């Protein structure tokens, strides 16, 4: 198999159902998801080294599979017969977020991306995920897309935030507060 095809030399690329410009909104959306997937792979490799974050590293490998599914669903130029992403992956992320947030101390102020190397990489994933979400929103304004894929990408950035905070807590590294932040997160009132 040859790695190069020369079919894109003039700025066009193939998608499911046709050819489009390489800077088409559809390519931007699933291309940014592909970029996120690469960062997730790097992060999984680093998280797997500590021994304290093996569960998160394993989850990231599963997330890579789901990101590929999202990209596949967004690559259709015409109505697909079957989407790969349903409601289950986003629901599973919500369950994990609810568990992970209990591992870190409560915050009242904004925090800076950082702390440990592991948390920093998870924050990079979070910010690239937010960019991917913006690209998906742009795509959805112009074309019909799988709404479950969009929902998953939205939920995934929250997962990365919760995972970054849990990673810092497990590694006994405090989150770094934004020093000029007002108290923006309030503790729930007891009933």
Automatic annotation (TrEMBL):
Top-level taxonomic group: Bacteria
For the Cobalamin adenosyltransferase-like domain, which residue ranges apply?
A: 3-166
Record field: catalytic activity: 2 cob(II)yrinate a,c diamide + reduced [electron-transfer flavoprotein] + 2 ATP = 2 adenosylcob(III)yrinate a,c-diamide + 2 triphosphate + oxidized [electron-transfer flavoprotein] + 3 H(+); 2 cob(II)alamin + reduced [electron-transfer flavoprotein] + 2 ATP = 2 adenosylcob(III)alamin + 2 triphosphate + oxidized [electron-transfer flavoprotein] + 3 H(+)
Named in its record, the pathway it takes part in is:
Cofactor biosynthesis; adenosylcobalamin biosynthesis; adenosylcobalamin from cob(II)yrinate a,c-diamide: step 2/7
The enzyme's first-digit EC class, named in words, is transferase
Q: What keywords does the record list, in alphabetical order? A: ATP-binding, Cobalamin biosynthesis, Nucleotide-binding, Transferase
The record ties this protein, via InterPro entries, to: CblAdoTrfase-like, CblAdoTrfase-like_sf, PduO-typ
Q: Which GO terms describe its molecular function?
A: ATP binding; corrinoid adenosyltransferase activity
* Example GO BP: cobalamin biosynthetic process
Q: What is its EC number?
A: 2.5.1.17
Q: How does it assemble?
A: Homotrimer.
Q: Which NCBIfam families match?
A: PduO_Nterm
**Similarity remark:** Belongs to the Cob(I)alamin adenosyltransferase family.
Query: What is the protein name given in its UniProt record?
Result: Corrinoid adenosyltransferase
What species is this protein from?
Paenibacillus sambharensis
């Amino acid at each position: 198999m040859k790695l190069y095809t020369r079919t894109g030399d003039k700025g066009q690329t193939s998608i499911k159902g046709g050819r489009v410009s390489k800077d088409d909104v559809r390519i931007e959306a699933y291309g940014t998801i592909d970029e996120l997937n690469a960062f997730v792979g790097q992060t999984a490799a680093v998280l797997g080294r500590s021994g304290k974050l093996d569960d998160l590293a394993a989850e990231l490998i599963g997330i890579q599979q789901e990101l590929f599914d999202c990209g596949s669903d967004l690559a259709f130029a015409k109505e697909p017969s079957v989407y790969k992403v349903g409601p289950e992956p986003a629901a599973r992320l919500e369950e994990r977020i609810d568990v992970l947030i209990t591992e870190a101390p409560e915050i009242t102020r904004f925090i800076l991306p950082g702390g440990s190397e592991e948390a920093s990489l998870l924050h990079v994933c979070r910010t690239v995920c937010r960019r991917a979400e913006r690209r998906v929103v742009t795509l959805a304004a112009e074309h019909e897309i799988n709404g479950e894929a969009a929902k998953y990408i939205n939920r995934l950035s929250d997962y990365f935030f919760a995972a970054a905070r849990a990673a810092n807590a497990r590694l006994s590294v405090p989150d770094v507060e934004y020093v000029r932040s007002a108290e923006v997160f309030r503790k729930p009132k007891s009933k």
